[in-house]
Amino acid sequence: MLLLALDTATPAVTVALHDGDDVIASSSQVDARRHGELLLPAIDRVLAEAGLKVDALTGIVVGIGPGPYTGLRVGLMTADAFGLALGVPVHGVCTLDGLAYAADLEGPFVVATDARRKEVYWARYADSRTRLTDPAVDRPADIAGRVAGLPAVGAGALLYPETFPRAHEPEYVTAAALARLAAERLAAGVELPAPRPLYLRRPDAQVPKNYKVVTPK
């Protein structure tokens, strides 16, 4: 097994290689505006660090969000392109699940990432491997009663201490955590989600209301 894992659902552009036993190379950079510029060089870098060629890959793991439209699609389209070019499977993993796995907490807790517009993408977890709720997007104040008293991880939790007073790192997901979680689940025979995005809301760009269709004469 040689899995290439990547995620662009948060400001972190993160890539890792997993050889079936553990992560052998990884790279993470935080830059919310340069996902498209940073991702392919990061893939080249981790392959070079491991001394491997791209045709050695046996599978791709990609974070499916939830996340903002622009950043999230960079990782998903890149994963699809590699999968098609190499003829290898592409597996999705919820980005929040990767953060929960990296947090390695016992007992119930919350993962929350920044959804902008003064909202968070979030879910509750029983432990680092077990999600209790579907990913959702809400204003922190609207979910305060549902997360009260629980530890929380992620940039969204750190942004709103009034709702998440027990928030702490990790702030962003790492591909290393995604790779370890995916490898663990694949080894156990668990079917991973399709590599399709969890946007949870419509993109900001909209067709103007007074848009006029131009037809040829």
UniProtKB/TrEMBL annotation:
Entry's EC annotation: 2.3.1.234
Molecular-function annotations in GO: tRNA N(6)-L-threonylcarbamoyladenine synthase activity
Name this polypeptide is given: tRNA (Adenosine(37)-N6)-threonylcarbamoyltransferase complex dimerization subunit type 1 TsaB
Pfam families in UniProt: TsaD (PF00814)
Record-linked Gene3D superfamilies: 3.30.420.40
EC top class, as a word: transferase
NCBIfam families the UniProt entry points to: T6A_YeaZ
InterPro entries named among the record's database cross-references: ATPase_NBD, Gcp-like_dom, T6A_TsaB
Keywords of the record: Acyltransferase, Transferase
Entry keyword Cytoplasm: no
Domain Gcp-like intervals: 32-145
Keyword match Acyltransferase: yes
Domain of life of the organism encoding this protein: Bacteria
